[in-house]
Amino acid sequence: MPEPVPFLDLAAQQKRLGPALRERLDRVLAHCRFVMGPEVTELEDRLARYGGARHAVGVSSGTDALLAVLMGEEIGPGMAVFLPAFTYTATAEVVLLLGAVPVFVDVDPQTFQISLSSLAQRLADVRQVGQLIPKAIIGVDLFGQPAPWDELNDFALNEGLTLIADCAQSFGASYKGRKLGHEAKATTLSFFPSKPLGGYGDGGAILTDDDEKAALYRSLRSHGEGRQRYEVQRIGLNARLDSLQAAVLLSKMDVFEEELKRREAVACAYDAGLPSLIRPPVRVLDSQSAWAVYCVTLPSRTLRDSLRDCLSEADIATAIYYPKPLHHQPAYQAQHDGVALPVAEALGEQVLALPIHPDLSDEAVGRVLAVTGQWAERQDEP
Ligand SMILES: *Cc1c(COP(=O)(O)O)cnc(C)c1O
User: Gene3D superfamilies from the entry (predicted)?
Assistant: First the structure.
């Protein structure tokens, strides 16, 4: 039996990181400043430089990063926040937690990124009903490819909306020759273990060029602390980043570029080798993906499920992101105005994510291609 092909291999990565990782962790164990220790500041400096932003503020998760940014924009009841229907629940959840309403927008059938024409339509819908004040857009770089940031910025500026970038899946990607990190007023990152830059637990960060907002996020992540300790300036969160997580992430930053290159090489091998029945991801022009997810599309749900079963029998792990668009999820039904978002609805039935990670061997990639090739040949038989 050939080796199973896992979806993610954090054990192999740990081995590759070697003693450097242990040394960093030992340093934290020695100084014992477990919350907001020197590793957090060092990581923030590195993240800011990497993403081309003036400030990086480490927080406890990508979700808390979004929450703090929305709190910083004073998002609350009676306000509408526009976001794609085809994303992870965290993007929408934070809007509801603050009492505002997420307005779901359809996605582009080619790139799966937010659709500008649907966005314009949804804004018109909200204005026509007249019950909510349109406030913000959360752009999401789905699967590691950039959202159409230039168009989103133009749109937000024309319509008087604040643009926020959810880069949970795309840190490391680039757009028009620049690393992502400063495409919007604030950019949020996630270091959940399965993200391209993942820690050993939860973590996140906010990138911004705005000095005042950066100070505000620092206050918000620490219970709304003022200039002095125990001065409570505002209602905040307990959303700090741990020193141990920061130490892990610093180690991973050392190999991040190499890992991104490996992800790209795997993506290229899949692009070139997949049978024609399986559509590879369409690349966003003028950009480089971080390949958080390599998502293929099948012509129907039956074929998608059949391919998934076939890969599973060959011990090749796959995943479905996302089986159901957010506006069809029970938690968001009451908020949604009932408008159909046909692309997001169809994608849930047709997409399949193949394994892509920096420790995926050429042999494993070859096995995925062999099994998909054999599967496709069987579909052609009468
Ligand atoms: C993972 C993810 C988040 C949330 O990040 P956490 O660190 O898990 O809280 C938000 N948005 C998107 C698009 C994500 O993929």
Answer: Aspartate Aminotransferase, domain 1 (3.90.1150.10), Type I PLP-dependent aspartate aminotransferase-like (Major domain) (3.40.640.10)
